[in-house]
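Work Package 3 (structural annotation) set out to generate three-dimensional models for the target panel prioritized at the project kickoff. During this period the team completed the workflow that converts sequence records into discrete structure tokens, so that structures can be stored uniformly alongside our sequence database. As a representative example, we reproduce one entry of 427 residues exactly as it appears in the project archive.
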Amino acid sequence: MTETYTTGLLHRAQKTGRGTTSLSGCVFKDLNRAVASLGIVSIVACLLSVGCSNSESKAGNVRAAMNQAVPVSTTQVRQQDMPVYLVGLGSVTPLNAVSIKSRVDGQLVQVAFKEGQHVKKGQLLAVIDPRPFEVQLSQAQAALFRDQALLRDARLNYQRFKGLLQESGAMSQQQVDTQASLVNQYEGTVRNDQAQIENAKLQLTYCHITSPIEGRIGLRLVDPGNIVHASDANPMLVVTQLQPITVIFTLPEDQLPKVAKRMRNGVLPVEAYSRDNQTKLDTGKLLTIDNEIDQTTGTGRLKAQFNNSDGELWPNQFVNVRLLLETMKNSLVIPAAAVQRGPQGMYVYVVKPDKTVDVRPVTVAISQNNLTSVASGLSPNDTVVTDGQDKLHAGSTVETRPAGPPNGQAPGTGSSGQRQGAGSPAS
């Protein structure tokens, strides 16, 4: 290339008539430029060759990475019954809670219970000084004895006056009628005395306070020796029925028609869980639905009853309630983590026998307690990916490791049991 370029310079010098000296200077200057140009071209060629080799190396690394197995967690699709729960928030409410107050005025002389004691219906709880009422009873009995004697005398006189009037006319009709009225007056007085006696006996009964229900006693609010009155605002103690006990909880108004429909077909089971949704406290049954909806919250109130045999439920306790609405038989169940959502809808990664994955569109029927029931798109014993989907695409090679069973999920952490809309599957 240099020789060709030099020959061209000589021909140009001959045509222009330049001297040898000027020709030599021109040649050497152009030669320097040519050499410099050749150096730049060589450098660019080297850089291009290095860049191409780096690109080919990176492409090879990418292809190698794509061919590597991606570690994922998998589980098999299971065919099992899928319970449908409705989840609500509730508060424990006793069937009966009685505030015990005195019905008479007097001094509290005896407390026959211990705080926290379980008492039976009719069991003695406290005694108020009965002596003033015993005196009243004695006075009423004495008045009755006196008035009964007066009544007997009035009846005898009435019989005498009536006989004299009929036999000899020695007694006037007016006197006989007056005596008859006197008899009636004494009869009324005697009946009043009998009522006074009954009232005194009733006051004596009120002096002995008994439990009106079976339940548990709370803290004592009045100590022995204090004067209690029937008009006192605060009770002496509170007896609360704990077995059985009820829970009042709320559900959205849109779910109430389905609950009412299921109630007509049978009893609906209800489960009560602790505040953190980790501990199952008791299992009961749904009693009734309230007759109106709260407009401020758009919810309806429901009442469930629990036996509470272990004493896990306490009045005013906050609980999470799960109402078993129905059970879907022989559903295809997978963990909810296996379902992915894309622009075209819901899909899962299915592991094929050759350890590659396939993108399978699915239709979700319901999601409940970290489990998902699939209506279409899967078959029993298909293997789906539950973890590591972010590194996968159709045809990826995977290295599987088993995940936990789909039915080993913590209760109470899922959705409210509403059926999901069937999204279009991802491509």
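The chain is about 35% helix and 35% strand.
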